[in-house]
Design brief:
This protein is an alpha+beta fold. Among the domains are: about 55 residues, Alpha-Beta Plaits, CATH 3.30.70.100; about 110 residues, Calcium-transporting ATPase, cytoplasmic transduction domain A (Distorted Sandwich); about 150 residues, 3-Layer(aba) Sandwich (Rossmann fold); about 130 residues, 3-Layer(aba) Sandwich (Calcium-transporting ATPase, cytoplasmic domain N), CATH 3.40.1110.10. It contains 26 helices and 25 strands. The strands form 5 sheets. It has a 7-stranded mixed β-sheet with strand order 13-25-24-23-14-21-22, sandwiched between helices. The chain has a 6-stranded antiparallel β-sheet with strand order 6-5-7-12-8-11, with no helix packed on it. A hairpin with a 2-residue loop joins strand 17 and strand 18. Helix 4 crosses helix 7, helix 13 packs antiparallel against helix 25 and helix 14 packs across helix 25. About 0% of the residues have low confidence.
Length: about 750
């Protein structure tokens, strides 16, 4: 089984996507067919030739980008950015604009000024010609829908309504219905394209080329010198070359000059600069970068020239992962969107049945005229045809996805990545938030604040040769770990210049949630928590000091060599400056249950909790305890968010209704349902506000779409509504709900206040 991906063009609404999915799925050999309306990406799996899929898409009235020849017309390429250029760019809309000239006499003399009594067969003929010209793409698409998909879609309904209007003598009505319908579809397509462009703009953040240091190959200037016959030039050495970012290799060194965009994720080798990361993380203030720091593709270099070692390939850098997640987000539809889509599937056929009954029952059982010979617009057949126009579900089906796409794009621009519309909706309902402590509420960058050897004779707080030896021994073991506390020990040993006293430990094993053990110089060294050592041996000599350290909020790590207790190290973590503000804002949003989950002891946990303002603390938690705590919270409050650093909190993040990871690591972006792209916890209340605003907008949009349908339903039954008025109103409400949804591209905004 092979998989193919196609970029579809020409879709105006989600209903178009469903028609393409259904048509392509009917091809022989297709096993899976998924079309993402937002990203316009069609994924097909099965034993099928790509040309067969492309031909079927075109047969359905759409096109595939980068595969058409110039004769396919205006569906090729990217759409123009201005509305009028877009209208003329589309072939079907261009026909409709030309047909408008033919419909003007009928509109003027029969609809707007009927009292003048101007009637002419030429006016009627012009109206029918307008219907045929504007409606040709619609008629063709309707026939394809019936023939290939065996379905009655909106194009079929509009075709029946227009042809029926001609048969009963409502010529101007028929022409106007088609012209307005095509223009309405174009307006939907234009506004949807504008929403998509906010996602595509992410692709423009990183440059296509990079300056890389590479060897001079086959140097023409030195060929023949000292026996040089080709290959790497021994005289030139490394030189700057401009290459495509797709050609970069891991470990190569790229040069980024002042003011340039960083072309690829990497680690800074030399140079220093203030780098603007706003396009990636949403940070408004440039971040100072020093050798050893990470830099992201798409960020903007400041005043210094940087040499960067490439750490990711083009397809796997931060920008690529971000774009992929945002584009695929619509595949995980919000429950509201799934409901609206299901409702639309039943709504349209239901109205068709009602329209048939309206046209048949009154004339058949009550003797009312099927067609009024004086005024065709008053006959019951016309009212039935008008109801077919009312059945158009466009405004309804576009009301939700445009809002979701706009919200996801807004979040991405500010550094909040939603992996799907389902998580936008779920986040709006949150009742409780559980926080991991280390790396989430705190910086996760602890520092060693005390080293105390059992052999130390100095007063508490002093350090001696025995303490330095204890630190060196602990460093030999911890240098094998990437855990923040382990790195704090290694950093402290480096500061004390004892990091090389012992060789790196061997046979290192983690004691899950409790510590680490390994062999140093042939003896077993164990570093563990207070609880772990209480389970194994007595260390009464330091009990009071350990209690005092815990009272200050320090994390203590006890050290043992074989069965001999050697002493302890105390480590302190600092609370993020944004934590208190974030917790306060969450409370202001009505979220009262704010819980901290941590593996630290209760005293340390309570100290941090008091600083940030959480309402509840669960300390001494192993990873499985955090999962249990989150599950219990879901049983109590249903809608629960878990916030962690995405590295060691994966099970708890998965157990929550919405898992939120803080940080831009690959683990964080892949583990969580929502990723906060920078270390600012205030993005969480912003994400909640954004999700709540989104659901309010969706509610208004659905109410507008359904309310207008009901209003015109009543007007048509009373004989007060016409087909062209129904199309015009549907076009208006489609535009209104689209523009209302697109407000979420700009509001709410993340405007960080100063932190006190």
């Amino acid at each position: 089984m092979t998989e193919h991906t196609f970029h579809i063009t020409g879709m105006d609404c989600a209903d178009c996507a469903r028609s393409i999915e259904k048509g392509v799925a009917r091809l022989d050999g297709i096993e899976l067919c998924l079309l993402n309306f937002t990203s316009e990406t069609l994924r097909v799996s099965g034993d099928v030739e790509p040309t067969a899929v492309i031909n079927r898409v075109r047969e359905l009235g759409y096109d595939v980008a980068d595969s058409a020849d110039p004769s396919t017309g205006p569906l090729d390429g990217q759409p123009p950015s201005t509305f009028f250029a877009y209208m003329w760019w589309r072939r079907d809309t261009r026909l409709a604009l030309l047909a408008t000239l033919l419909i003007l006499p009928g509109l003027l003399f029969e609809e707007l000024l009927p009292g003048l009594g101007v009637r002419s067969i030429l006016i009627d003929a012009a109206a029918v010609a307008a219907m045929a010209i504007a409606g040709w793409p619609i008629f063709k698409s309707a026939w394809t829908a019936v023939r290939l998909n065996h379905e009655i879609n909106i194009n079929v309904l509009m075709s029946i309504a227009a042809v029926g209007a001609v048969l009963i003598g409502a010529y101007t009505e028929a022409g106007m219905v088609m012209v307005l319908f095509v223009v309405a579809e174009a307006i939907e397509g234009y506004t949807t394209a504008r929403a998509r462009q906010s996602i595509r703009s992410l692709m423009e953040l990183a440059p296509n080329q990079a300056t890389v240091l590479r060897e001079c190959i086959d140097c023409a200037g030195h060929l023949g010198q000292d026996g040089y016959v080709g290959g790497p030039c021994p005289f030139c050495g490394l030189e700057e070359q401009r290459v495509s970012v797709d050609d970069l290799r891991l470990g190569e060194t790229i040069i980024v000059k002042p003011g340039e965009r960083v072309p690829m994720d990497g680690r800074l080798l030399s140079g220093s600069s203030a780098v603007n990361q706003a396009p990636i993380t949403g940070e408004s203030v440039p971040v100072d970068k020093q050798p050893g720091d990470e830099v992201f593709a798409g960020s903007i270099n400041g005043q210094g020239t940087l040499e960067i070692s490439v750490t990711h390939l083009a397809a796997d850098n931060t920008i690529s992962r971000l774009i992929k997640m945002v584009e695929e987000a619509q595949e995980k539809q919000a429950p509201t969107q799934r409901f609206v889509d299901r409702f639309a599937r039943y709504y349209t056929p239901a109205v068709v049945v009602i329209a048939a009954l309206v046209a048949i029952v009154p004339p058949l059982f009550f003797g009312l005229p099927l067609v009024d010979p004086v005024d065709p617009l008053q006959g019951w057949l016309y009212r039935g045809l008008a109801l077919l126009v009312v059945a158009c579900p466009c405004a309804l089906v576009i009301s939700t996805p445009v809002s979701i796409v706009s919200a996801i794009s807004n979040g991405a621009r500010h550094g909040v990545i939603f992996k799907g519309g389902a998580y936008v909706e779920e986040l709006s309902r949150v009742k409780a938030v559980a926080f991991d402590k280390t790396g989430t509420l705190t910086r996760g960058e602890p520092a060693v604040v005390a080293v105390r050897s059992l052999a130390c004779t100095l007063p508490a707080g002093g350090e001696c040769a025995a303490c330095d030896d204890l630190l060196a021994l602990a460093s030999a073991l911890e240098q094998r770990s990437e855990h923040p506390i382990a790195q704090a020990v290694v950093t402290k040993a480096s500061e004390q210049q004892v990091e090389r006293r012992y060789g790196a430990a061997e046979n290192v094993q983690a004691l899950t949630g409790r510590g680490v053990t390994g062999d140093v110089d042939g003896r077993t060294i164990t570093i563990g928590s207070h609880i772990y050592f209480e389970d194994h041996e007595n260390h009464q000599a330091h009990c009071q000091e350990l209690a005092a350290a815990a009272g200050h909020g320090y994390t203590t790590m006890l050290v043992r060599r074989d069965d001999e207790y050697l002493g302890y190290l105390a480590v302190a973590d600092t609370v993020r400056e944004s934590s208190r503000t974030a917790v306060s804002e969450l409370r202001a949003l009505g979220i009262e249950h704010l819980i901290m989950l941590t593996g630290d002891n209760a005293q340390t946990a309570q100290k941090v909790a008091a600083e940030v303002g959480v309402t509840e603390v669960k300390a001494d938690c192993l990873p499985e305890d955090k999962v249990t705590a989150v599950s219990e919270l879901r049983a109590q409050h249903q809608h629960v968010v878990m916030v962690g650093d995405g590295i060691n909190d994966a099970p708890a993040l998965a157990a929550a209704s919405v898992g939120v990871a803080i940080g831009h690591t690959a683990q964080a972006m892949e583990t969580a349902d929502v990723s906060l792209m920078r270390d600012d916890l205030r993005l969480l209340p912003f994400a909640v506000r954004l999700s709540q605003a989104t659901m309010r907008v969706i509610g208004v949009n659905v109410a507008l779409a359904l309310g207008l349908k009901l209003a015109f339903f009543a007007l048509v039954l009373l004989g007060l509504g016409t087909m062209w008025m129904a199309v015009l109103a549907d076009m208006g409400v489609s535009l209104l709900v689209t523009l209302n949804g697109m407000r979420l591209l700009r509001r709410p905004r993340f405007v960080p206040q100063s932190i006190h």
